[in-house]
Amino acid sequence: MYPTRALRVVLEPNLSSAQHTTVCIKPASDFQGANIYVERAGQLHLVLSEAEGARPHHVSCFSAHRPQRVALFLQASPQRDISRRTASFQYELLSNQSTAGPDFKKMALVEAMCRPCDNVELLMAICSSDFVVKGSIRNVSHDSENHMSRVDVSVQRVYRQKNRIFQQDEGSGEWRGPIRTLLQCKVKKGGGDFLFTGNEHFGEAWLGCAPRFKDFMFVYRAARERGANPCEFELN
């Protein structure tokens, strides 16, 4: 609060086994008063400016060369008055080798993977995703300014969720929740039931694999008969 001079923040995650790390930073909606730099080999590189901090949903990601130690440098920007300013942000540290298969945690924020998942990716998704729900699409809205789309889902069953993103509406009793994806994925409203999987980033659900439920059941049952399913899934 009331940023002055500078502050060095060292992040030391428990990622000693990872060879590469991706760091993502999301400023608070009222981020003011400072710029954020990453320190590399004694040099400072701008990651987030005060102007960018004013943009909602803005996320900056960069690769860290030393996974055991990531140093951020917050430098206060000159101010003409003494009004209250808060330089607040959230961060996520993602290991590029944190999963045996495709890195679903990086998918939404770093590299868009808009193509449909293949069978192997789908079977892994139900095991490793932060959320797995069966439902239908109520509405799809697009935010061209922030390059995102929002999929509003009516949920029939929650198989797993890390936090309470999908909740029961007090009035109707229906379970609902929003899922985000990149605008370039060109998501459209479609009928029928889907299996929505994905991961959470900064308190929001991001879409991973989302096959039609009947197609998923066909793939899963075939894999189970061969003993090729990486984890058990509740069929009833």
TrEMBL record:
GO terms for molecular function: hormone activity. GO terms for cellular component: extracellular space. Its main location: secreted. It is found in: Secreted. Keywords: Disulfide bond, Secreted, Signal. The keyword S-adenosyl-L-methionine does not apply. The keyword Aminoacyl-tRNA synthetase does not apply. It comes from the Eukaryota. PANTHER family: METEORIN-LIKE PROTEIN (PTHR28593:SF4). Belongs to the meteorin family. This is Meteorin-like protein isoform X1. It comes from Pipra filicauda (Wire-tailed manakin). The gene is LOC114003038.
